[in-house]
Amino acid sequence: MRNFLLKVSAFLTLPAILILLIIAGLDMANRNVTERRARDMDYANVFMGDSHIALAIDHSEMEGSINIARPAELIGHSYHKLRSLLVSGSGIQNVFLGFSYHNIAKGHTSTIESLHNGTIITDYFYLHNWREKAGMLLTWAVTEPSQFRTLISKGWMNISTRSKKLDGGFQNTFTENTATKSVMDKRILTQFYDETSGNGIEEKNLEYLARIKELCDSSGVRLILVNTPIHPYYRSKIPAKFVQRYERALDSLQIEVMDLSRLFHDDKLFTFDGDHVSYEGAIITTRHIGQRLKLLKPRDQITNDEKDQHSIVIR
Amino acid sequence: MLFNTVEYAMFLPLVFVLHWLVAANRPKLQNVLLLVASYFFYSCWDWRFSLLLAFSTMLDFTTGLLMLRSRTDWARRSWFWISVIVNLGLLGVFKYFNFFSESFAAALTRMGVSVDPFTLRVILPVGISFYTFHGLSYVIDIYKRRIEAEKDIIDYALFVSFFPLLVAGPIERATHLLPQLKTNRHFDSSRAVDGLRQILWGLFKKIVIADNCAMFADQIFGNSAEQTGSTLLLGAVFFAFQIYADFSGYSDIAQGTARLFGIELLRNFAFPYFSRDIAEFWRRWHISLSSWFRDYLYIPLGGSRGGTAAKVRNTFIIFLVSGLWHGANWTFLAWGFLNALYFMPLLLSSRNRENLGTVAQGRSLPTTGEFFQMATTFLLTVMAWVFFRANDLTHAIQYFQGMLSPTLFTLPVLQKPVTGIILCILLGLFLSLEWLGRNEKYAIERIGVTWARPLRYSMYYAIMAIIFWYGGKDQQFIYFQF
Question: Per CATH, the architecture of A2-314 is what?
Answer without folding.
Answer: 3-Layer(aba) Sandwich (3.40)
